[in-house]
Amino acid sequence: MGRASWQRLLWSFVSAMILLSFMTPFIIFTISFLMIPLVILYVRSSTRQFVIYYVGSLLFVYLLSAWVGSVLLAVSFFFLPPVLVMGYLYKRKAPARAVVTTASLTLLAESLLSLVIGYLVGMNPIAKFKQFMINNLSSAAPELRALLPKDQELYINMMTQIIPVVLIAFALFYVIVTHGLSRWLLNKSGESIPGLRPVREWMLPKSFVWFYLIAFAADLLINPNSNTLTAMLLLNLLSLLVPLFAIQAIGFLFFITHTNKWNRVLPIIAIILLIILSPFFFAFSLLGVFDVAFPIRERFKKKL
């Protein structure tokens, strides 16, 4: 068996072990890396070789996982389409932005299709999600419940309404983590996989500023407790735009740091603050709005 075959066997084994970790507490750490070994396996193999090693890893998982084998196989099949999309585009040397966008849309479409299928077979996934949150909040420690809004029913309804944004965030998170680590490992092994532009060069379209302002103005006029379709769409729009402009603000801080040759600790502190202080998101997003709406960066460049 040649070196290439051993590498394929290794990545198929890693994929199997990540799936098997779903039966252990290690799932908290490994769940984010589920697609990475399969993407690498696809890029480093022909289609026929990928099928052989992938099926072999699933058989290995099924034999060792007893009664949960079918569930683990279903999880693997769910993530297979974005794996194939990313692997195919990597082989074609497609730009990183195209890879991330296409794979995210693929995973998002699968999630939405799963919801539709759930409704068709009478499962009502949204109701199950709501009941899951109620059960978890009722069994949570008093210290944790104290951190949540006093009106927990309103909080649960809000979380249920922003499921579309949650699905978008889920797709982006998985694809970006997979792209970042897969690209690094593939480049280490001799491949040449294009990367995303540096964070300091990220810039949202200016049209997003209008969406943000319109949504913010409408939010002042609409009752937040309303269960209307308009209120739900507005909530999802703001839940999506505020984090996007907060990320834009981080890109602006990286730009300032790079342009002035400052220590990178400034944007890193900003990221930590965003993670720890969630209410800071809105105020920080305003900096991102100004960065997109006005030529602030051009003024910084002219000063140098």
Q: How would you describe the overall organization of this protein?
A:
The protein is an all-alpha fold and 304 residues long. The chain has helices at 3-20, 27-30, 36-43, 47-64, 69-91, 96-120, 125-139, 142-147, 152-161, 163-188, 207-221, 229-260, 265-276, 280-293, 296-303. Helix 3 packs across helix 10 (163-188). It is globular. The mean pLDDT is 83.
Quick take:
This protein has 304 residues and is mainly α.
Layout of helices and strands, plus pairs?
Blueprint: H1 3-20, H2 27-30, H3 36-43, H4 47-64, H5 69-91, H6 96-120, H7 125-139, H8 142-147, H9 152-161, H10 163-188, H11 207-221, H12 229-260, H13 265-276, H14 280-293, H15 296-303
